[in-house]
Amino acid sequence: MTVILNCASREAALKSLSECFQCQPSELKRVLILLDLDVIYEQQPRVLIPCEQYLYNFVIEHLGEHLPLTQVMWFHGTRTAPNNDFAAGILCLNESAPKVWRTVIEFAPSKVVKERLERWRFQAVPNYLYQMRTEDSLHWGPFGYLVKEVLLNARALSQHDYLGIPELIEDICIAYQENYNEDILQHYTDVLKPKIVQFVSDKRCDKSCIETALCYAYSSARNLPPDSNSVSGIDYEGQNIPPLNIVDIEQL
Questions:
Q1: pLDDT tens digits for 51-95?
Q2: Is residue 251 part of a domain?
Q3: In the chain, how many domains are there?
Q4: Rounded to an integer, what distance in angstroms lies between the CA atom of residue 166 and that of residue 82?
Q5: Are 93 and 59 found together in one domain?
Q6: What DSSP letter does each residue of 195-208 carry, written as one string?
Q7: Are residues 211 and 132 in the same domain?
Q8: What are the DSSP E strand ranges found in the chain?
Q9: pLDDT tens for the chain, residues 1 to 252
Q10: Shared domain check, 210 and 151
């Protein structure tokens, strides 16, 4: 049996989790409402396990063990050229960097900016973060979030706002302002388009995915926004995500 965890929305998360636990969505929601984690941790200070593990154990006690996951849906957020259809998949940073440079040069706000950026393209960009990201494979990703709504609430959850501007473009814009005293970041925010690329993967199907999804469903059942317990991601560690894995591309 194929079991896919999907947190594209609150309803999708509840539905896919209920399939995992082989119950009705209404029954899973009832169990989630039974527990008040705030009260538990206030009244029982000796509880030593993280709240996501406590919630996971509580649901299993009431609904039994869940089915093993076959695949998990993930969400990659970016701001990119309007015509970017990700035909080559989602590329790791060392392969996507040339495309990023083509984009920032193509959409440059003026001829002067374009010429300066073209020189930087083949030289060292005077920005520490840019150099760190491009030189250290630890930062190459590509990455995705388990819960789509996290991308839409990035700043409130202390995450980088990838839909606002990709880190590499932000690094280039910061370096440009520091060197030429001109802010071009807002220009690129205006001309590029935020997109969420939804992809499926069997690379990571561990228990922690269920824990995070349950935390998301727990807050959703109370009509609350996702909190830090709903933040979980996948790192492809320098391997491209193939186009066959892409399920949907949403332009916001």
A1: 999 899 999 999 999 999 999 999 999 999 999 999 999 999 988
A2: no
A3: 2
A4: 14
A5: no
A6: EEEEEEESS---HH
A7: no
A8: 4-5, 71-80, 143-145, 193-201, 233-235, 246-251
A9: 788 999 999 999 999 999 999 999 999 999 999 988 888 877 777 777 889 998 999 999 999 999 999 999 999 999 999 999 999 999 999 889 999 999 999 999 999 999 999 988 887 788 888 888 888 888 898 999 999 999 999 999 999 999 999 999 999 999 999 999 999 999 999 999 999 999 999 999 999 999 999 999 999 999 999 999 999 999 999 899 999 999 999 999
A10: no
Q: How many helices (H) and strands (E) does the chain have?
A: 11, 6
Does residue 252 fall inside a structural domain?
no
Instruction: Please give the structure tokens belonging to residue 166.
Output: 């990709």
CA distances from 137 to 17, 19, 84, 239, 248 (A): 34, 37, 24, 10, 27
CB 246 within 8 A of CB 90: yes
Structural domain of 45: 4-71+200-237+242-246
Residues 84 and 194 in one domain: yes
Residue 60 lies in a domain: yes
Q: How far apart, in whole angstroms, are the C-alpha atoms of residue 55 and residue 10?
A: 17
Asked whether residue 124 is assigned to any structural domain, the reply reads yes
Say if residues 216 and 185 touch (Cβ distance below 8 Å).
Answer: no
Are 118 and 85 within one domain? yes
Whether 97 and 191 map to the same domain: the answer is: yes
Is the entire prediction scored with pTM above 0.90?
A: yes
